[in-house]
Hints:
Elements: H1 5-17, H2 19-35, H3 44-51, H4 56-62, E1 69-74, H5 89-99, E2 103-109, H6 115-118, H7 127-142, E3 149-153, H8 159-169, E4 175-178, H9 189-200, H10 206-216, H11 228-238, H12 254-269, H13 280-283, H14 286-299, H15 305-315, H16 322-331, H17 346-352, H18 354-364, E5 373-374, E6 377-378, E7 385-389, E8 395-399, E9 423-428, E10 431-436, E11 446-454, H19 457-465, E12 473-477, H20 482-485, H21 493-502, E13 507-511, E14 524-529, E15 546-550, E16 555-558, H22 562-567, H23 588-593
Parallel strand pairs: 1-2, 1-3, 3-4, 11-12, 12-13, 13-14
Antiparallel strand pairs: 5-6, 7-8, 9-10, 10-14, 11-15, 15-16
Helix pairs in contact: 1-16, 5-12, 7-8, 8-15, 9-10, 9-21, 11-14
Amino acid sequence: MTIHPKIAEVTERVRQRSRESRALYLRRLDAAKKAGVRRAGLACGNLAHGFAACGVDDKAALKGEIMPNIGIITAYNDMLSAHQPYETYPEVIRAAAREAGGIAQVAGGVPAMCDGVTQGQTGMELSLFSRDAIAMAAAVGLSHNMFDAAMFLGICDKIVPGLMIAALSFGHIPTVFVPAGPMTTGLPNGEKARIRQLYAEGKVGRAELLEAESASYHGPGTCTFYGTANTNQMMMEIMGLHLPGSSFVNPNTPLREALTKAATKRALAITALGNEFTPIGEIVDEKVIVNGVVGLNATGGSTNHTMHMVAIAKAAGIQLTWDDFSDISDTVPLLARVYPNGLADVNHFHAAGGMSFLIRELLGAGYLHEDVKTVWGHGLAAYTSEPKLGEGGAVVWGEGASESLDEKILAPVAKAFAPNGGLKVLSGNLGRAVIKVSAVKPDRHVIEAPAKVFETQDGLLAAFKAGELTGDFVAVIRFQGPKANGMPELHKLTPTLGILQDRGQRVALLTDGRMSGASGKVPAAIHVTPEAVAGGPIARIRDGDMIRLDAVTGKLDVLVDPAEFAARLPSEPDLAENEHGMGRELFAMFRAHATAAESGAGVF
């Protein structure tokens, strides 16, 4: 398969940029591979602690190094709908491992918070940094050196990126990621959005809003809109870290359980004790990282990954930049319309042909590297297959969808919804930012309007309720970056700004905070770097300054005399209230040492 020239160019650019850091990573990985898993080399007291709670047969097997042992890292909790199904996975995995001649132990648990619960709440200020806390917690679990392979049970927003960073830090260990699937379809996304806007306008009450939200988020599984959680699942599959076709099978179904058993057997097959040794650090190379970014753009995925993929790549010694995202977005067509980029949900996407059709189309047009390693073997073409239940309840893979069953949701390359992925990097005298315009109407891609400046999202909401948000304007919400308050998502702004836009006002958002999968029909320049608290120019904007946001040319500027703007003193709000309560004092280290959004917004 011939790779598209621009994809080849970006991949080579990433490879050259990463030459030294990737070589260092691979040298360390090789050293760890040679050292291997040394259960038999552990002191007797160490090993006795490692299998003290095991059954007699497992103890006997773990005394040697012949039977492979899987370490399970789980993000289970039963408050999080997406992770509640993981409660039964360890027993399923243990049974499947024994059947295949192996052992499995839960190596550790990691925190899993729900952004849906914390949106607009104080707890959201812990959300982004929970990624790095998850990576450290997973590393603790794997540090016992008892495991020949790992299985990671995680699905939602910061959890999968955190698990990926941990997995790549143990890059010599073969690793399979195991999804739990989306909840079944509930209230249509368009109706949910309509009720939210009516509530924001005061036209329906809290009871009606809660009824609509409960009908949308109604059972086990991921939320069905295409936010960060489901973008995670797409990326794990297109990067070859899931079993083919496993990302969007609903929880608590026979096929879902059969796929988990198959993932267990595959994890055992790729250990160093077999003939297909496949460490995750060798799978995730420059081509696989580029494939992930291609998938992000082809599906209109979450802007959170402009930070998460940078951090994941860094963990593998690979240096990915926003310019790489932008160039890939300019090249790769948009093939999916899933809410908020359309009205369909991920179940509709899956039914229309899902990942097998998407990967087939992208491979056929040369947008994906086929010649990569995966947990399933060599080559991404295997991911154009689709799993079904065979005799005895085992999984069999057959040919996936060769055509879309609904081209309004999932389009072939020849009928793409847009010639590009809709993700654009903006640069100018306000720094750099990211904008996702795949759901923004073309006549809104350029906004030039006076600034209305706020230092909290609640300040904007109060102004809306007071009737002060009249005319065209760019809402500037600053001091929302990683160092200021942990970079919370500003999801509460979406209905309000949508109402104003629907009234005919030309509005946009400019912020050093996040919008994530909530990025929708209102143009939003997000992740502004440098952030306000780090002395970024956004801290010098004043009410009434003309702002030009141009997603066509990729420009982001304040239209003020340069000398006057440079002479201004930056705003210095009191951020003391961000430093304590709801656990925020425990995350002070993260805020103090966080890198910029463009560098991954983390502490590693």
